[in-house]
């Protein structure tokens, strides 16, 4: 049986984890902000965008997020690639909206029950703009805040202790999992194993993948036992307190969160008093 030799890099899903962590540990005006400020500001933007029914709001918020992305020195190309990867999760539902809502028919197919209405199209545009703002905000947060910083920010904001502990261990386990998976894939490549090699029986390839998954479960169980014994040897109990470094909010944090609050208030005032001057962007597009 002919064996194909292919030089392939690490799986993209593995590399994305370490690459994202490296990007989030960068040095910029946005990276250096305190974690709680970044988390709260992103939540404010997402909540305001989701509850607004005027297109002007997500349009301005998306523009603001692009400015933040520029200040954070993030690659627009890579950031929008990640947004496109996340888009199908909500985009799949949005794609059906123009066809399922009553209203004035603006397009009719040869099949009588397949048509697009103005109400459905307006609702689709609004949902898509909300989704785009939310995904952009999440990508910016994940690109400017290491995972451990996000978890610590949740803890400082009052997350329940047990949930904070679970998230802390999960974040640490993630990188252990990535390292173990990389070593397994490296061992497979050194033995010329390729899951896409059609010269090898499909059943045999699936069996080898199953062995790899089983090995990951065993390694995860072993790591879990070692961590438990390590924590027990250090007298960890349900009454133990989690340590987190105390940080003081400085002028850049207050300026950043202040800009966002002023922007939200300004948009709300524009919607309340000047929406009739904004044309389509000021119309209520909700159902």
What characteristics describe this protein?
2 strands, globular, mainly alpha, 287 residues, two-stranded antiparallel sheet
The count of domains is: 2
Which sequence of SSEs, written as H and E, runs from N to C?
Answer: HHHHHEEHHHHH
Note the main sheet.
Answer: 2 strands, antiparallel
Q: How many strand units?
A: 2
**Residues in helices, as a percent range:** 55-70%
- Tell me the structural class: mainly alpha
The poorly predicted ranges are 1-12
Number of H- or I-type helical stretches:
10
Radius of gyration: 24 Å
Tertiary shape? globular
Strand proportion, as a percent range, falls in under 5%
| Largest beta sheet: strand ordering | 1-2
How would you describe this protein?
The protein has 287 residues and is mainly alpha-helical. 67% of the residues lie in helices and 2% in strands. The chain is built from ten helices and two strands, in the order αααααββααααα.
Concise summary:
The chain has 287 residues and is mainly alpha-helical. 67% of the residues lie in helices and 2% in strands.
Secondary-structure blueprint of this entry?
Elements: H1 12-24, H2 35-51, H3 56-71, H4 76-94, H5 97-100, E1 105-108, E2 115-117, H6 118-144, H7 147-156, H8 161-190, H9 202-233, H10 251-274
Antiparallel strand pairs: 1-2
